Structures are given as C-alpha cells and as structure tokens.
Amino acid sequence: MAVYEIVFSPTGGTQKVSGLFTRSFCQESTQINLVRRDVDVSVFSFRPEDICIVSVPSYGGRVPSAAVSRLGRIKGNGAKAVLIVVYGNRDYDDTFAELKEILENSGFSCAAAVAAVAEHSIMRQFASGRPDIRDEEELFRFAEVIRDHIESGTLSASLKIPGGRPYREFSGVPMKPRTGRSCNQCGICAKECPVDAILSENSFQTDTAKCISCMRCITVCPKNARSVSKALLTAGSMKMKKECSKRKGNELFI
User: For a Cys-Cys bond, which of 27, 34, 36, 95 suits 58, CB 3.0-4.6 Å?
Assistant: First the structure.
C-alpha cells in the first residue's frame, strides 16, 4: 500500500490543511501537485490497495476548473480516495458532490471526506490564521478515525456527502489580479500560473478569460507587484461579511 497526497493549492491554504491531515494519517506519502502545468498527470496510475488523499479548495461552491481537468486524467484503478475540501469560511456548497463524481469517473473508490476551513484566498480577513491549533487537533483526529476505519475494513459501502445536482452555478470571480509599476518582469507569475493566463514575455498582460482568480500570482510575486482592485475587494468583503464572520467548524464524513 502507498499513500499519495494529491493537492491543488494555489495560495497555500489547501496545502496546509492537506499536509496536517496527511502527516497524521501516515509517516510516508508521495505528493502530486496539481497546480503545476508542467506535470503530466496522465502518467499516474494507482493500484486498488493505494490510498489517495485528494485536496481541493472550493471556488464558489465548486471544484476549480483546472483541478477538474487534471483529476480527470488520473487513473484511479480502484484506489481509495479520501476527499478534502477546503473553504474560506463561507460554504462549500456542491464541491464534495462534484469532486466525488470526478474521482469516481476516474476510477477511484471514495472512502471518506473532510471539510476544513482555511484563510480565504482573496479576502484574507475571513478565517484569518486558519487552520489554527483547534483545526490541527480536529484534522489529526479525523485522520486517525479514517485510518482506523480503512485498516479495520469498516468503511461504508457508499460514502454519503453533502451537495447535489444541478451543481451550483459558478461563472468565476470578477476580481482579476493586475500588475503594478514595481513589476520587474521576472516571469515568476507567468511560470507559476496554473492556467497559463499570464504572458511570459509581458506579465502586464493577463488573459482574463483564462484566469480563475486563484491569486497564485499574487502569492508568488517577490515584488508584491500583483494585486486586485481595492474597490472590488471592498465590495466583495462587505457582501461576504455576514456569511463569513462567524467561525465555522471542520466536518468528517465516513
């Protein structure tokens, strides 16, 4: 049996959750980074005895489109999948239902699921600092419970998770990062963009149709030269304040 940590984490929040869970679940694992465009995920083909911990953020209650296409090219071959959905303290809506369908279509057997909160990737005042110590303790406990169920063979024959069809409509986020004057054209944002939306020869140009507003370019820019409109950020924060201000907990589905 081998354990694989398959993760799509443009800004690091989902990776932090996934790492905390995986380290408690097992001593050794192999990571597959779905953010990287240069990784040919179609070469990954698992065995029935393998366990894959699949972690994605929830974008507007859905699985990010880039993660959808890459997960769809992996061959599960009956391997067990533990689904982790990370959200910024609003809601995950239909993300679990969509993720489960994607994985089952790729040949995985969905064994268990965890919903976890991390700092919002755009409006960072929501769930700021999470996952925190309380979250870590819960994730450690969830990992132990799931591992025990897998080892004892007491998993449910059919994983029941929230979400339904038709999936929540999501047409993207209007906040698209733009380049400021401090940019020195180092090209890091273009190289790291998961959907190739930034021109490598001119990072001042962003294909807004391709951009999924994942904010990775802002996270990796060494000059802090990438940002979103302050007016849109303020408007979005006001709109989300009521839904996101109260602390939401993590959940286990098994």
Answer: 95
